[in-house]
Amino acid sequence: MAVLIAAALVVGALRVMRVRRAGAWARRRARRSAPLLVLTLAPRLVPVALCLLLPAIAGLVMGARDVTWEAAWYGWPALVVWAVVAAAASAAVLAARVLHLVRERRSPAPPDATRPPAPRPTPAT
Questions:
Q1: Nearest 5 degrees, angle CA 1-CA 44-CA 85?
Q2: Which pTM value belongs to this model?
Q3: Residue 10 vs residues 3, 16, 82, 90, 95: alpha-carbon distances, Å
Q4: CB-based burial of residue 100 (10 Å sphere; 0-12 exposed, 13-18 middle, 19+ buried)?
């Protein structure tokens, strides 16, 4: 139980760092095509799906029994906490990245972003 609680704390801390760095992530990927961005962001939905399907997955593991959220919470509270923290943190990272991507795509590119800087004149000696 302590291991899953520690894992939930680690997952939460790592996701907070990723939410804070979402702006830099979006600046690096702002000019990529939309399908590539969707493929890049799709893995963030896995923890959300696993959390939503936790009772069904637990039912399969337990020999095709019907497991409710209450039963999962009563039987494996640390697992439920870990799944919810991971899902919420991944959803927050996904939302932050999408928000920053939309902002980056709507902002105009700097005028000299594609052109290399002009060479500096050398002083005459």
A1: 30
A2: 0.74
A3: 10, 10, 10, 13, 20
A4: buried
52-111 pLDDT per residue, tens:
999 888 888 888 788 888 888 888 888 898 899 999 999 999 999 999 999 988 877 665
Q: Which residues contact 82 (CB under 8 A, 6 or more apart)?
A: 4, 5, 7, 8, 11
Q: pLDDT by residue (tens digit) across 14-68? A: 888 888 988 898 888 888 888 999 999 999 999 999 999 998 888 888 887 888 8
Whole-angstrom CA distances from 55 to 22, 49, 76, 97 are 32, 11, 11, 29
